[in-house]
Write a sequence for this structure.
């Protein structure tokens, strides 16, 4: 699978500070699938593994898909201020461990959060630099088809998720971007493009813009000076 190349000196010179990327949207819209594919492609993006009190689904592993815990443990962590954000979603508690954010920032990686709209609001309020993306399915029929196809919820739970889809969709306008998840590969590319465009925003580059501009000027002067002393023709051929 394609992974992004190692950073070149030019990239490091003009590197944006890492920022959180939030994927939200109705259950079944494909946030987890898109997020997981993106972190496979990109070594500069880290998936935020949340804590939850919901039961693990068949095939889900503790510490890989979620940190599964009971309410007592979740509430203890929450009361110790261990979460960047947390919310009750479809009757269970979910939260982003603060350590996920701190460790990603330390590593210079962007943290990708697959969270609900309440969590997205909290992260945006706390971290101004957040990029928020709302993922929608191509149609209402398709979301139902995908949720049924995933086969992880009984009828009552499925209904509950479809009901919450209504309030999730009402929050769409709060987001910076919307991505329609019709063809998976295209949706992943779009999210990747958004992350890359955001990484190139001048305001994210901070002081490195001024420093890089000065370095480029110095280098141009040095190159020109060595060009002047070079034999005729040498510079043009470089
Ligand atoms: P969410 O995390 O938003 O609840 P999932 O990522 O679990 O959604 O996706 C729900 C189901 O839809 C999964 O079975 C997944 O494999 C499937 N799915 C996701 N994206 C697509 C797509 N573009 N086309 C078809 N099926 C998809
Ligand atoms: P699921 O049970 O399908 O894995 O997730 C249900 C919902 O909880 C999804 O909308 C998912 O994005 C959201 N969610 C997962 N982790 C977190 C989290 O850490 N915080 C918040 N606020 N929501 C989360």
């Amino acid at each position: 699978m394609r992974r992004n190349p190692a950073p070149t000196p030019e990239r490091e010179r003009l590197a944006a500070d890492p920022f959180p990327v939030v994927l939200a949207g109705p259950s079944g819209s494909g946030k987890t699938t898109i997020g997981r594919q993106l972190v496979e492609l990109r070594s500069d993006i880290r998936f935020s593994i949340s804590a939850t009190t919901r039961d693990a689904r068949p095939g889900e592993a503790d510490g890989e898909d979620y940190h599964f815990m009971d309410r007592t443990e979740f509430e203890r962590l929450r009361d110790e201020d261990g979460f960047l954000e947390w919310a009750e979603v479809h009757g269970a508690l979910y939260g982003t461990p603060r350590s996920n954010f701190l460790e990603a920032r330390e590593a210079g990686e962007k943290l990708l959060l697959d969270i609900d709209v309440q969590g997205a609001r909290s992260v945006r309020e706390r971290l101004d630099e957040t990029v928020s993306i709302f993922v929608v399915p191509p149609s209402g029929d398709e979301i139902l088809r995908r949720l049924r196809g995933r086969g992880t919820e009984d009828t009552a739970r499925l209904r509950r998720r479809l009901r919450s889809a209504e309030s999730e969709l009402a929050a769409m306008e709060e987001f910076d971007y919307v991505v329609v998840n019709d063809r998976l590969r295209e949706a992943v590319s779009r999210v990747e493009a958004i992350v890359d465009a955001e990484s190139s925003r001048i305001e994210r580059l901070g002081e490195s813009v001024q420093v890089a501009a000065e370095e480029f000027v110095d280098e141009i002067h040095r190159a020109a000076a060595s060009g002047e002393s070079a034999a005729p023709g040498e510079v043009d051929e470089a």
Observations:
- The pocket of adenosine-5'-diphosphate (ligand 1) is lined by residues 25, 27-33, 146, 149-150, 181, 183-184, 187 (CB under 6 Å).
- The longest helix spans residues 208-229.
- Residues 11-48+109-225 form a domain with the Rossmann fold fold (CATH 3.40.50.300).
